[in-house]
Design brief:
By secondary structure, this protein is mainly alpha-helical. It contains 12 helices and 7 strands. It has helices at 5-24, 45-55, 74-83, 99-109, 115-129, 151-159, 177-182, 193-211, 214-220, 228-238, 249-252, 258-274; strands at 38-39, 59-62, 93-96, 163-166, 169-172, 239-240, 243-244. Strand 6 and strand 7 (243-244) form a beta hairpin.
Length: 275
């Protein structure tokens, strides 16, 4: 029997809480943090995750042991801000509720239509579970084989039409688009921004490779010992706006996207040698 929206919301919140604790609670804890609190330091997607739980009343925030203001719900924090608008910034410390507490609060205590929380919570989930270099959730439009830890959540999302399951593969549907757009993974027209950037980088790398002066190719790409740092420096010195030219001293200090471009050039060089 398919789950209802509250069940989906509860499980998303539980997964967000687990991820936050796994990533943030094992770092160097501040001496000012209360027990079970961690410092999120306004760290991008993790702050989004804290906010999603805070909004659902599944976590509390605080200013640490030297402050009387801890165990703050989101509403309590807003009241505090209203009392002194220029005094109270967002609390740096956060504590998430235990999974059973989160489920109870959402399944039994949450009032009104749970769909009003769904986009923000979904966005926080995909942002956090898509973080990292290994074992992360795919956020593009192509079919993907998910890491084992994500499969129970994806099966639940499939019941609600956010993803389709095809054998061992999953593929995101258009229903997930508002959450992906909110997290800046998809464009307004539903394209994966990662795919768009990857295609742009590939086109730029091909153009750079095909127009590269022979002296640079001979000195940096004709042997198997590709030096990523040196190739990046070459790009910083001579590649700009789709052309090879000698850049000014000020322009040479700008790393920009040259590191990723250098990696792509090495990939092209290796592929040509294998032909």
């Amino acid at each position: 029997m398919p789950s209802n929206s509250k069940q989906l919301l509860a499980e998303l919140a539980v997964e967000i809480a687990k991820s936050l604790k796994n990533v943030l609670a094992h770092g160097d804890l501040s001496q000012y943090a209360l027990p079970d609190y961690f410092e999120h330091s306004y760290s991008g997607d993790f702050t989004v995750g804290c906010d999603a739980l805070w909004d659902l009343n599944c976590g509390v925030a605080g200013y640490g042991i030297k402050s009387p203001y801890n165990e703050l719900s989101y509403e309590a924090f807003r009241d505090l801000q209203m009392s002194a608008p220029n005094k109270y910034i967002r609390p740096p410390y956060f504590r998430v509720d235990a999974p059973d507490v989160i489920r109870k609060k959402i399944l039994e205590d949450l009032e009104g239509d749970p769909s009003r929380f769904m986009t923000n919570t979904l966005s926080a989930y995909v942002a956090i579970d898509g973080f990292g270099d290994k074992d992360q959730l795919s956020l593009g439009r192509d079919p993907f084989v998910p890491p084992a830890r994500c499969r129970p959540m994806l099966r639940l999302l499939a019941e609600h039409g956010y993803v389709e399951n095809i054998g061992e593969y999953y593929i995101w549907t258009n229903k997930i688009a508002p959450a992906m757009q909110l997290a800046y993974f998809w464009s307004d027209d539903g394209q994966s921004l990662g795919d768009v950037e990857d295609a742009r980088l590939e086109d730029e790398a091909r153009a750079a490779w095909e127009t590269m002066p022979i002296t640079l190719k001979e000195s940096h790409f004709r042997n198997n010992g590709y030096d990523l740092a040196e190739i990046t420096k070459v790009l910083m010195k001579f590649w700009k706006d789709g052309t090879w030219r000698d850049k000014s001293e000020e322009e040479r200090d700008i790393l920009s996207g040259h590191l990723n471009l250098a990696r792509r050039l090495i990939k092209i060089a290796k592929a040509e040698k294998q032909q």
